[in-house]
Description:
Blueprint: H1 2-7, H2 12-46, H3 67-78, H4 89-105, E1 116-118, E2 121-123, H5 137-157, H6 160-191, H7 196-202, H8 213-226, H9 238-241, H10 251-276, H11 290-312, H12 320-349
Antiparallel strand pairs: 1-2
Amino acid sequence: xxxxxxxxxxxxxxxxxxxxxxxxxxxxxxxxxxxxxxxxxxxxxxxxxxxxxxxxxxxxxxxxxxxxxxxxxxxxxxxxxxxxxxxxxxxxxxxxxxxxxxxxxxxxxxxxxxxxxxxxxxxxxxxxxxxxxxxxxxxxxxxxxxxxxxxxxxxxxxxxxxxxxxxxxxxxxxxxxxxxxxxxxxxxxxxxxxxxxxxxxxxxxxxxxxxxxxxxxxxxxxxxxxxxxxxxxxxxxxxxxxxxxxxxxxxxxxxxxxxxxxxxxxxxxxxxxxxxxxxxxxxxxxxxxxxxxxxxxxxxxxxxxxxxxxxxxxxxxxxxxxxxxxxxxxxxxxxxxxxxxxxxxxxxxx
Length: 350
């Protein structure tokens, strides 16, 4: 750390802050881009298809379809940018950024490895330092803002399919956020705090997924609703409302909306790992090295990202009334019951 900082003529603290900004923003963005390839390749494997195989690197190498990522990016950059005549042009341009920026900011508080102590200085593996006063409330608050990007995109398009998609997205998020928040409150209660570093340290012996399995179940299901993924992709619903709030979008604005969905998946997977699967903790290793802790976190993160993709291509979509029923009559009572049980157990322990 100090050697690299000296090479760049920077203070170690300044160097580490710059490095963290690059890691926290470039990491999820790179993984999100790769997830688009994994989704296409994985869905092809699940459906016994060939998958992306037309784009070649330098016209020669297929590389399992990876050049398709570059081909898609070039296509989005060069495609003509159309805006419908009746759209609200200012909001139409602004909406993709309202969806993309909150998705990118949610990862800032997540610790992606064990803190490094060097030269008497502690370097924390999260962009926001421990004890910042926001803790895990920050990603939940930022995540809930993302729905405004979808609503703005829907309303500004002046298209009935887009409006239907936006209304579905807002109803879906309101229905599931209450259950999700109660599940997280149970974690705060058990930990005695809401800082992610405290939550991970509290899982050194036993991961939260075991004593709070029903809370994990509620949070896991709600994450699919929050990210608008199948079986909860009612905001898009290609077979019912064309493409929902995407309908009038093309070129880079469409790419930003799509990319924000995949960044949400990365952030949702990071939250699941941090809250229920010990974060960077390694099973049966009391004090893992910094490198091992980062590798463990990334491995868990990638696994849950794959689970999001696997479920999309395995489970059929619910009807909208089934979505509402599950949110208000299954998830909310289950989450409330889990919180009451955890509170009772805490009371019994004194």
